[in-house]
Amino acid sequence: MANNFTFYSPTEIVFGRGTHTQAAEYIRKYGGSRVLVVYGSERVVKSGLLEQVVAPMRQAGLVCHLLGGVVPNPHLGKVYEGIEIGKREGIDFLLAVGGGSVIDTAKAIAYGLAEPDRDVWELFDGKRAAKACLPLASVLTIAAAGSESSNSAVITNEKTGQKRPYDDNLARPKFAVMNPELTLTLPDYQTQSGCADIMMHTMERYFTGSGNMELTDALAEALLRTVMTNARILHEDPANYDARAEVMWAGSLAHNDLTGCGNGGGDFATHMLEHEMGGMFDVTHGAGLAAIWPSWARYVCASAMPRFVRYAVNVMGVTPGADDAETAEKGIRAMEDFYRSIGMPTNMRELGIAPTDDQLHAMAASCASACGGSKGSARLLYEADMYNIYKMAL
Amino acid sequence: MANNFTFYSPTEIVFGRGTHTQAAEYIRKYGGSRVLVVYGSERVVKSGLLEQVVAPMRQAGLVCHLLGGVVPNPHLGKVYEGIEIGKREGIDFLLAVGGGSVIDTAKAIAYGLAEPDRDVWELFDGKRAAKACLPLASVLTIAAAGSESSNSAVITNEKTGQKRPYDDNLARPKFAVMNPELTLTLPDYQTQSGCADIMMHTMERYFTGSGNMELTDALAEALLRTVMTNARILHEDPANYDARAEVMWAGSLAHNDLTGCGNGGGDFATHMLEHEMGGMFDVTHGAGLAAIWPSWARYVCASAMPRFVRYAVNVMGVTPGADDAETAEKGIRAMEDFYRSIGMPTNMRELGIAPTDDQLHAMAASCASACGGSKGSARLLYEADMYNIYKMAL
C-alpha cells in the first residue's frame, strides 16, 4: 500500500576521483563568498587535504576561515564557537570537510548564524522549528552518516549528555563533493561502522508497520545487498576504489529519503536507542547501531512479521523456515553473522561497554524523553520497552 | 568500474491521493505569482481536473492564464503561442497540467520567456545553450516521460518534421504534484506506452560500453522488474491504485538520472531513432520505442555482450543459454514477449507504420544529423547503422 509522501533531495552531487578540488566553483555557483571551513581531526591538515580544498577557494577570491577540532558525537560547544566566528567574520557559507559529525556541526552553525538572536540548541531540544539556515555544503571524507544530502543533524550537548537530532529541509546541503579516494585509507573499524550506519538508515525506513511501496522496497533491498557485498570486499581489500565508490554513493541514497518513499515515515527507534549509548559512552555511531539492532529486532519482530520475513529472504538470502517466526529469526541471525564477519558488534559487550542497571534505566528514560514518550513504526516503543531492549543487548 | 558523475534532481515531489489541489501552495513557495497553466486535450477541462487545480490557485491570489491544445509530439507553434501570452501577461511561473508533451511545452515556453529576444528553437536545433529559464512545475496526469523531474524537453518543429531534445538543468521543475488517481482512467494503450517509455529511460542508461556502478545497476534492475510487474497488473486491472502509484513513481526515478549514476552517460540511440519515427508518423512515443528496441538490441548486442547477458538474467529472469550470445538473444526475445503481453509492438508493422525505403533513408539521415553524426555507447551508430536498424524493424 502506497502512503502519500513528499520527496525533496536537491543536493547537487559531484562524485568521483579528483573532485575535491572543485568545491570552490560550486560555492561560487551557490552564492557563497565568505566561507567557514569546518573540519575534525588534524589528519585532514597533515594529509594535505584541507589545503587542496582551500587553496582553489582562495584563488577563486573566496574569503576562508577555518574551524577544526570537531569530534565524533559532535559537541554543542564547537557549534557555539563556529557561530561566534561566523558572526564576527560575516560568514555567508559553510563548507564541511569531513564526515557526518563535521557536516552536522556545519548545519548547526548555519542554523545559528541564520537566526543569530536565538539559541540553536532550542532546535535540537524540540523547543522551536528553524525559520532559516545559511547555505552549506561538504567535501565528504567518510561514507556513513548520509548527512551530505540529508536534512538531519545530530548534536550532543556535552554538558547534559543529551544527543539530539533535528531534521529540517532548510539544512539540505547545496552540494556534496564525494571523492571515494579520500576514504581509501580509513581504518577498517570506521569503514565498517560506516557500512552499518548506511544500512541502518535504509533499514529504519524498511521496517515499518504502516505500509510500503514495492518500488521503494526493491530499491532498498538492492541498496542493502550492494552495501553488504562491498563491506565484505573492503574488509579484505580496504584500498579497493570501486568498492569505496559503491559504499559512498549508497551512503547518500540510504539517507536522502529515497528508500523511504511511501512508507509512512519509517521506524527510527534503533537510532534513538543508539543516541543514548553514544551520548553516555561516546561509542562509534555505526558500531552502536549494530550492537543494539539484533535486540531491537527480536523485541519488535512479532509486530511486523511480514517485513522481517521479507528482509530475511530478499536481503539476507535465507531459505524460509518452518514458519514465519523461524524465517525471521534466521534473518536476524544472518544479520548478526554479517556484522561479525565485518568486525562489527552484535551486543554491548562486543561493543565494549557495560552499563549498570541504573544506567540502562537512565538511558531508557532519556530516550523516551527525546522521543516525546514513544518511538517506532514496526512497533511503538515506550520507556519500559526501551529498557527491555537495552537489557537484552547487554 | 565507477565513472565520475554529477547528480542533480532538485524537484520537490508531492505524491499521493488528493495532492493535485496543492499546486497553489507550492507555486507560492517557489515565488510564482502570475502563472501560465498549460494543458493538452479538453479532457482535463471536461473532467473538472483543471478547475480543481486552478480554483485554489486563484483563491491563493495567483493570476492564472490558460493555454490548452498541446498535442503529443508537441509543436513548436504552441510554444511560440505560449511565449506571446507570457510576454503580454507578465507570466513568471509555468504550471503544466498533463504528461510529458505538456511539461515539455511548458519548459520550452519557460526558456523562451527567460530570453525573450532569442528564438527558443535555437536550443533544440543545437545552435546555442540556454542562459536562463523561468521556474516551472507540473501536475502530472500520465506516467511516462519522466519530464516532471528530468532536465529534458523534446519539441517537434511541425514545419520541418524535426523532433529534437534539449537537456539543461535550468529547466528542472521546481515541484511535481503526482497523484496516481489522475491516471486511473487512462486507456490501456497509453498506460502501456508509458510503461515502455519508463523502462526505456532506464535501459538507455543501462546498456553502455563505458562502465557501470554495481549500485546503479542494482537500482535499475529493481526498477525495471517493478515496472514490468505493475504493467502486467494494469493490463488486467487498470484501476489498481497501488500499481498506478508504482508506475508513476518509477517514471520519475527512471529519468531523473538516478539509474545512470557512474555509467559514463548512457546510450540513448533508441530514443533518437524513435524521435524520427515520431516526427514523421506521429506515433505514440513509448510504443515507438518498443517497436524499435528489439532491432537496436540485436544490432548492437555483440558490442556490449556482458550488459545484454546481465539484463537477460537479472531483469528478464531467463536461464542462461549455451553461450553469451544465446543468453542475450533469450533476453531480447523475453523482452519482445513482455511487450506483446502488454499490447506493445515489437516492430514497425505492429506499430502500424510502413515507411518506404526512401523514408527510411530520410529518417536515418535526419537522425544522424540530429545526433551530430553518431550516437550510442553500447555501440556507436552512424547513419548507415541507423538505416540498417530501421530496416530490421520493418
UniProtKB/TrEMBL annotation, chains A, B:
Claim: Ligase is one of the keywords in the record: no
Question: Which positions fall inside the Fe-containing alcohol dehydrogenase-like C-terminal domain?
Answer: 195-393
* MF terms in GO: alcohol dehydrogenase (NADP+) activity; butanol dehydrogenase (NAD+) activity; metal ion binding; methylglyoxal reductase (NADPH) (acetol producing) activity
Q: Which domain of life is it from?
A: Bacteria
Q: Which UniProt keywords apply?
A: Oxidoreductase
Report the residue ranges that make up the Alcohol dehydrogenase iron-type/glycerol dehydrogenase GldA domain in this protein.
10-180
Does this entry carry the keyword Oxidoreductase? yes
InterPro entries according to UniProt: ADH_Fe/GldA, ADH_Fe_C, BDH-like
Annotated Gene Ontology cellular components are: cytosol
Q: Which PANTHER family match?
A: ALCOHOL DEHYDROGENASE YQHD
Protein known as = Iron-containing alcohol dehydrogenase
